[in-house]
Amino acid sequence: MKKQATLSIKRWFYGIDNGILVGVLALMFLGFLTVFIAGPYTARRIGAEGYIFLKKFGVYSIIGLFSLFFFSKLDIKKILILSIIGLVVFWSGTVATFFIGSTIKGAKRWINVAGFGLQPSELMKPFFIIIQAYLLQKITENWKNNFTLAKKLLVLHLGILALTILPLIFQPDLGMAFTFLFVWGIMVFIAGLPWKYVASLLAICSASLFLLYNSFGHFKSRIDRFWSPENADTYQIDKALEAVKNGGWLPNIGDGFIKESLPDSHADFVFVVFVEEFGALIGFGIIALFLFVFLTGMRAVKKSKNDFVIFSGSGLLGIFIFQAFFNIASNLSIVPTKGMTLPFVSYGGSSFLSFAIIFGILLAILQEEKA
User: Which of 75, 120, 256, 271 is the most exposed place for a label (fewest CB within 10 A)?
Assistant: First the structure.
């Protein structure tokens, strides 16, 4: 029995894309370092036990690794079925936050489950991408030969997008809503839908952003703070930029101050924690690691002749690299700050689990393509 299990794991390991897996495991290790370095300072500020975040991260890691392994062994049909179930369950969970959610920093995004904060909207990501990729495949297949069916599928496709984003706007979690819109836009662009439809949808998105800017005070304040920092409270970003300057090129382990002074040093501002503690060279190394995972994945996706694999793979990798570079760019004041995690590296169980599922699914569809 033990021998069969070992053989099964070996077959799994040699069947998947090892480059992607090794890159993901390296990012997970960076996540462990993050919590180990910055977690105790955050715990001290809130009066919690010193390594509470490290212990919780251990639980997240075990669940995440199991989820990655589980999803990577599924075929596409099972992934589609689980994606339908997953999107319904976690969309319902997102709606449920309005009634039973915990309010943190003015937003209801989390549900308390056995002492752990669960953010259902994070867990919608992989399942939303898979369902939308499948619908796009069917839309493009039928666009010329069965336009009536293609239009019906397009309405369903847009309806799912609207239903997904609507509760996020009212939570409010506009950054998450924009993330879903971005990854959806990537898939629509790659699918090659006629430009008049794409242009119409872009116009709707632009009008929506204008309405959001004028309707939500916190969204407006973040944009204004970015464009006119001299008229706003920029304490966090000022500290982050100071940490980058203090870090130098080479490691200064233990000499950093940002982990002590910023409340989100273990989460939103984890990149500058690394740069201050380990130097700018390590910072460039982290960026290179994210690019390695993304480019390795895209190289495999581009080889596929299956539209579903191309659309879904591009969406899964697109949300990964978008979130990574938005987090890093906000740390460096290149874009407005937003509570967006650095995949696998920032502390956050829902985000960690979401990206574990994302890469489990990616490994599965690429493996089935090779079979």
Answer: 75
